[in-house]
Amino acid sequence: MGSVDLSVQVGSLTLANPVLTASGTFGYGIEFCDYFNVADLGGISTKGLSLEPRDGNPPPRICETSAGMLNAIGLANVGVEAFCRDKLPQLRERGITVVVNVFATSVEDFEKLAVRLDRETGIAALELNVSCPNVDHGGIEFGRDPAAAARVTAAVVAVTKLPVWVKMSPEAPDLRAVARACQNAGAQALSAINTVRGLAIDADTWRPRLANRTGGLSGPALKPIALRIVWELSHYVDIPIVGIGGIASGRDAVEFLLAGATAVQVGTASFADPLAAKHVCDELSAYCAERGITPRDLVGQLKG
Predict the structure, then answer these.
(1) Is 132 a catalytic residue?
(2) Which residue, 262, 274, 271, is CA-closest to 42?
(3) Is residue 291 part of a domain?
(4) pLDDT at position 135
(5) Of 84, 132, 182, 288, catalytic
């Protein structure tokens, strides 16, 4: 990664560098350990976890679009107990910084997830999915309403010693109000943004290309929207923002930092290239080394 000090501070958490992977695009992290040393990243955000295992939506669940992809996985996951038993020990042994993404359909279940994960070692932070657009009861109600988002955030903060991040929905009617509510409720960071709901249609069959009909749009098409939201939120809240949306290169990461993000998450790019997050980190390091700066010098420095 070079000699540049890439470290950043996200709330109470110090990351070795600002490049993480996004939930739902990197499995549980273990799957990528054969490709590169995942511990070299700033961290990973795990596949979203629920109290009980979920099978998710019927296939087809993913389709390519002209500038990204649509997914309607339906939050399929092994459940929190299997994660703690089978996945977390492997991540811990490898020294990977683990942000655990969780979702639930009630405040009480969010609390139960936080209490369970708080008993484990090797977890750096919790990321609350209050914004997933792929299922009817994956938390979207919380992410659309400032009061509901605040209730979830406050409830989790009250039962865990772990830092709490909240993942923002770009479809909230007033996202700034949601962000401010989460900050006031004790969130240490905001992840922005989740996918935008979209629809793909097969002109030959006249049918949706996803069994779920709609899905979450991610990839390059999302990047200008994500940059705008990160820039707006950075002027409205005082806690760090982790930028997400179409990041596939070091220069993409630089743009998000300039817009106001403290760190970034690489998502869809990992589907095309398992080494995408590593490349982003290496390229960001080279960018900073060439200019004699650190990632911290870039945060919020958009001109004009």
Answers:
(1) yes
(2) 262
(3) yes
(4) 40
(5) 132
